[in-house]
Specification:
Helices cover 49% and strands 19% of the residues. It is built from 22 helices and 21 strands. About 3% of the residues have low confidence. Keywords: Membrane, Transmembrane, Transmembrane helix. InterPro entries: Cyclic-di-GMP_PDE-like, EAL_dom, EAL_sf, GGDEF_dom, Nucleotide_cyclase, Rev_trsase/Diguanyl_cyclase. Pfam families: EAL (PF00563), GGDEF (PF00990).
Amino acid sequence: MSFVQLTYKFQQQKVAGLETMLMEHYQRQPDWELEAWLPPMLLAYNAVDFRLSLKDEVLFAYKGNLSTQNAVIYDHVLEPKSGLHMKLTLPQPFEHYTFSWYETLILLIGIFAVIALVRFGHLWFSQQLDGIEELALRSRLILQGKHEEALASPGRGKPRLINRALTKLLEELQDAQKERGRFDKFIRSNTFLDAETHIGNRLFLTNRLDALSHNQSMLAHGVIYLLEMDDLDLLQQSQGEIAAKELLNSTVNAISLLLQNQANSIFARRSHNQFAIVVPQISLIEADQLASKLLKICLSQPLPEVDNRDNFFHLGCAYFTAGDNAAQLIEEADMALRAAQLQGNSNWFMYDKGAIDEEFAKGSVRWRSFLENALVQKRFFPFSQPIIDSDGNEHHKEIFTRSRDNQGALIRASLFIPMANKCGLMPQVERQIIERVLLLLSNEPTIEVSNLPSNVKSAPQRYSINLSLDSLMSRAFTQWLKTTLLEYRHLTPRLIFEVAEDIVIQHQEKLLPKLDMIRKMGARLCVDHVGEQVVGTYYIRECHFDLIKVHRSIVRHIHMRPENQLFIRSLIGGLYRTEVQVCAEGVEVFEEWQTLKILGVSAAQGMYFSEPIEAK
């Protein structure tokens, strides 16, 4: 456009020059001879038509041999006083100009070269900006705390030196987090594990028994075994430490393998030659069968040549029910152990407590019939217990399952849940509970708790629901859960699903897709019973849990147990700069809650705050 305007301006300047020449000739030579010099100039101008007049008299007229339809007409008055007037008609500057094929080719080549250069520059600039954008994306993920995603997408960030530096720092951070998890596990191992056999020590046994009792009264039924190797010291003296250690390790490994099928079982070393095994929620008949299997495993171990080989292993058993004294339970097991030793050979002995409630001895057939009828008649009911944060506000409520018999009496979850697991009915039970909780959220979004302490404030209602391994492994249950969460997606953010730590540790790869599905649906994830087993804590980051709940065995009397406080400190330190909240289970006295808050625990639940009440 500028070139065209310049051409028109050049034409206007030529016309202005012609006007100047005409005025000079008119002023100097009144009888000017225009025919002598003006036609060649007009011919040079490619003039189409020219007319010079003085008032009404035509002084000079010129008609060119060019014709045009888009002419430019210059009609100017040269001297207003005398009436000298000029009218000049010129063609458009480019009207009669035509490009040759050579000029067209040069022009096209130039245009294509410019286009190619601009395209190349655009691509190069876009590529450079893409690298910067990828670098900015990784930086944004790091600032949001999503280090795993930032490490998994190195991309082609530029400058590449900065991109490689980010990758290296993220890898070192990941290694540091794993090392922190290993260090936490090392602290827990040295606190709660026996250094020689790598099973629980005496402190671990005390913590777990405290968790199974309340005010020295057992909360559920089960059995405790005391296994003693009478001549272990003599074996060590005669055969050496290596032989004794091999016997210990082989016996412990075989017993641990047997106890894998017993949920929530406890295996610990009480002294140099004595071990304790606690199996909750087991019937008396099953306890006798398990005692026979334990003794059989011990007798199958390769025992070196020692005196009294047939009198080496002794097993004392004491069956307990809910309400039995925990301290007396150890004494009964010890008396049973002494009775087994008095028999003169390797054997086991069950402490005779008298008549055992038939409720604990009946088989699984009757339990299956009861559970199926309860499912059909919808006699499973949710009971809720509030979780209170450090500011005194209600964080959420945890749902506990209770059932009622035909007479309307409540049946403890510690009784029917193990039977439901054995009968494979837990998915149906948990499905019924989830439906009831969703109904509660739909009808009553906020529910008052009458027996909370006066300093506790009400909060928007949220519920946490426990999921068992059978439910998470059931394809039908997970598909139903996905459909239900989509249907109630407006209520899903108010749900928290809890999974036990031992389930996550043993089945992490299989559970990870199920847990991701629940999280993507909008619900939150929680892992409970943390600290019940001596394991690392890196799974918390890998599974993207939002909350963790410390097991009551760690919380019990924590204000008097520095080793448990050390565990809490290391756990919270390992979760530094994450959004994971740490909660505590089983808080019963003010001193426990006060100590937990000082240690940095976010929330807690237990009898100190409220008993579980029926959610209506």
